[in-house]
């Protein structure tokens, strides 16, 4: 039986974001064609949903070992140094995601305290920003899962 890692919650959320982007964009095009004006909320929601889609897609790619990387050096190494390199890759990814989580949460909290409103619709800005640290946590979990699977030999690297 072949091992097939998955990230179902992220796939569902990304699919939902893409479907909503498609529907509101279609609605905006039809409205513009029929009335000559456009729906005000579509741009703000589309940008927000594109960010959600990007982070959920990155999380799914992490889980499935599908991120682009140059594996020539990694594949040329013997088992011991290769495992050390995999751990180093995880360490670097953890640092980057940790910084995104920390500063994303700090920014979200600041926007909540300042009661900042979005420029287009006047919604609380933190509603949009809260997804940045949350989805970064999901990516961090998927990074750790991917690393464990790679170290155990459960994920095959491209050759």
Report the sheet with the most strands, covering strand number, pairing sense and barrel closure. Answer: none
The DSSP helix count reads: 6
- H/E series: HHHHHH
Helix content: over 70%
Number of domains: 1
Q: Runs with pLDDT <50, length 5+? A: none
Per the principal axes of the C-alpha atoms, what is the gross shape?
elongated
Please provide the count of β strands.
0
Give the N-terminus to C-terminus distance in angstroms.
21 Å
* Category from helices, strands and their pairing: mainly alpha
Q: Estimate what percentage of residues fall within beta strands.
A: under 5%
- Round the Cα radius of gyration to an integer and report it: 20 Å
Average residue pLDDT:
91
Would you give an account of this structure?
The protein is mostly helical. It has one domain. The chain contains 6 helices and no strands. Helix 1 runs antiparallel to helix 2, helix 2 runs parallel beside helix 6 and helix 4 runs antiparallel to helix 6. The longest helix is centred in the middle third of the chain and has 36 residues. The protein is elongated, with a radius of gyration of 20 Å. The mean pLDDT is 91.
């Amino acid at each position: 039986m072949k091992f097939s890692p998955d990230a179902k919650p992220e796939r569902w959320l990304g699919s939902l974001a893409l479907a909503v982007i498609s529907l509101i964009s279609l609605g905006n095009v039809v409205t513009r064609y029929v009335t000559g004006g456009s729906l005000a909320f579509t741009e703000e929601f589309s940008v927000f949903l594109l960010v959600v889609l990007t982070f959920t897609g990155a999380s799914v790619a992490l889980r499935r070992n599908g991120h682009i990387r140059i594996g020539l050096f990694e594949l040329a190494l013997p088992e011991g140094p290769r495992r050390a390199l995999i751990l180093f890759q995880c360490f670097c990814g953890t640092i980057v995601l940790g910084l995104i989580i920390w500063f994303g949460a700090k920014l979200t909290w600041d926007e909540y305290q300042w009661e900042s409103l979005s420029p287009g619709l006047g919604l609380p800005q933190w509603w949009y920003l809260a997804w940045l640290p949350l989805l970064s946590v999901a990516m961090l979990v998927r990074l750790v899962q991917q690393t464990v699977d790679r170290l155990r030999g459960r994920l095959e690297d491209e050759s």
